[in-house]
Amino acid sequence: MSLRDPFLLAPVGKDYLWGGRRLKDDFGKESIPLDPLAETWECSTHPNVPSTVASGEFKGKLLSEVIEEHPEILGTHPQGEKGQIPIIIKLIDTKENRSIKVDPSDEYAKTHENGQLGKTKMWYVLDATPDATLVYGFRQKMTKELVRKSALDGSIENYLNRVSIKKNDVFIVNPGIVHAIGAGALIAEIQEASDLSYRLYDYNRTDKNGNKRRLDIDKALDVINLDALNEPKQSIRVLRYRKGRATELLARNKYFLVERMLINTENTHEMASYQSGSYSFRVLLCYSGRGTILCEEDNFFLSFFKGDCIFVPANSSPLKIHGKAELLNIRC
C-alpha cells in the first residue's frame, strides 16, 4: 500500500433514543456496542466524533491525524483547521420520530457559536416503510410567537409539512428549515462538518433517566424560516451508463457533490474504470452489494462490502472498481 491508495474508515455510533437495530442487522455494524444504534458517523474529522482508519498503513490512526501528516491526500481542497475535512457522512436509522430541529447558517454559527460551521445537508433515502414521512418546513406562514407557543404546548405538529418518502428519494435541507426524519426510515446523510442543531420540539419524550430532553427554542427562533414552504418534489435524475457502471447526480452545491454509482461487472468479469478526482479527495459509501477496488500501478486491491466507507485520496493512482454494488460517490 502507498500513500495514494484508498482505505476503509471505522464508524462511530450514537445511541439516541429514537434509533433501532437496522444499522446492525442490515449494514453489519454489530461491533458497535450500542443499543439502540441510531446513527453511525461513517466519515468525520469533527473533534466530537472523529473517524478512525480501518485498513492499510494508517490502520488505527484518526483520519484527522493522517490528514495532518499527509495533507496531499485532500488535493487542492482547503485543509481547514487541524486536518479537518469540510463534510460529515452518516447512516441514520429512525425506529421512532427524530426531534423537530432547525440548523443555523454559517454566518450565524460563526458569530454565535465560536466560529463553528453551520449546517447544509442532504438526505438520501436508502429504505423506508410504506408509512414513513419526514418534516420539511411549515404548511403556513408562521410568527415567532406562534412557533414558541406551539412548540411548548405540542400543537406545532399541526403546522408542519409532513412529506411521504420512499427508497431513492433525495432531500436538500438548508439552514433555517424546520425538519425531522420520521419513524421507519433508513437514511444516508451528507452534511457540512458541523455538530450544531437546535431542537425545537421532542414530543415530550424523556431520556433514560426520566428527564425531558433539552430544547433550544431561543436559538431556533433566531435562525428559523417562518415562510410557508411547498412540499419538496423529486427532481428528474438521469442515469448515465458506461460498460459495467452507471452514475447519476444526486446533489451539487458549494459544500459537496454526491453521485449514485451502480457497479455490475460480476457476470462479464470486466473492470469499470474509475479515476479519482485530481482536485479533491472522494469518499465512497457502499449501501448495497460488494466489490473490489484495484490499483494496478501499486499492485493494490481493497475489498468492500455493504456498509463500508472508503476514503479515496485526491492523489490516488488510476483505479478500477468491479463487483456488483451500489455506492454514493461524495466529493467536495
What labels describe this entry?
Jelly Rolls; 6-stranded antiparallel β-sheet; 10-stranded antiparallel β-sheet; mainly beta; 2 domains; 332 residues
* Secondary structure category: mainly beta
**Which regions have little confidence, pLDDT < 50, spanning 5+ residues?**
none
Mean pLDDT: 92
Total DSSP helices? 5
SSE order, one letter for each helix or strand:
EEHEEHEEHEEHEEEEEHEEEEEEEE
Number of domains: 2
- β-strand percent reads 35-45%
Q: Name the CATH superfamily assignment of the largest domain.
A: Jelly Rolls
CATH topology of the largest domain: Jelly Rolls
Describe the structure.
The protein has 5 helices and 21 strands. Strands 1, 4, 14, 15, 16, 17, 18, 19, 20 and 21 form a 10-stranded antiparallel sheet that branches. The protein has a 6-stranded antiparallel sheet with strand order 2-3-5-12-7-10, with no helix packed on it. The longest helix is centred in the middle third of the chain and has 10 residues, at 144-153. The model has no long low-confidence stretch (mean pLDDT 92). 43% of the residues are buried. It folds into 2 domains: 9-223, Jelly Rolls (Sandwich), CATH 2.60.120.10; 240-331, Jelly Rolls, CATH 2.60.120.10. The chain is globular and about 65 Å long. The protein has 332 residues and is mostly beta strands.
Give the topology, please.
Layout: E1 7-10, E2 12-14, H1 22-25, E3 39-43, E4 52-53, H2 63-69, E5 87-94, E6 100-102, H3 106-112, E7 121-128, E8 133-138, H4 144-153, E9 160-164, E10 170-173, E11 179-181, E12 185-192, E13 198-201, H5 217-223, E14 240-242, E15 245-252, E16 257-264, E17 272-274, E18 282-295, E19 300-305, E20 309-312, E21 319-331
Antiparallel strand pairs: 1-4, 1-20, 2-3, 3-5, 5-12, 6-13, 7-10, 7-12, 8-9, 8-11, 14-15, 15-16, 16-21, 17-21, 18-19, 18-20, 18-21
